[in-house]
Amino acid sequence: METVQARPVREFCPISVFDAVFADWEIRLNILEAQAAKGQPNSGY
Fold it and tell me: What are the sequence ranges of the domains in the chain?
């Protein structure tokens, strides 16, 4: 199970840190997906 390996880390570090990192990556991925869907020329492709 993947959660077993993540438990000690979550106990050591505040959950807010993980939430902030995951939220940041979610926003970045959402922006990239939105740009790819719109076909913007400045998307890096």
Answer: 2-39
The per-residue pLDDT for range 1-45, each reduced to its tens digit, is 455 555 555 555 566 777 888 888 899 999 889 888 887 665 555
Taking CB atoms within 8 Å and a gap of at least 24, the contacts of 28-33 are none
Nearest Cα to 10, choosing from 2, 18, 1? 18
Separation between Cα atoms, residue 12 and residue 15, nearest integer Å = 9
Backbone angles phi, psi at 23, to 5 degrees: -65, -40
Q: What is the pTM of this model?
A: 0.40
SS3 (DSSP) at 45 = coil
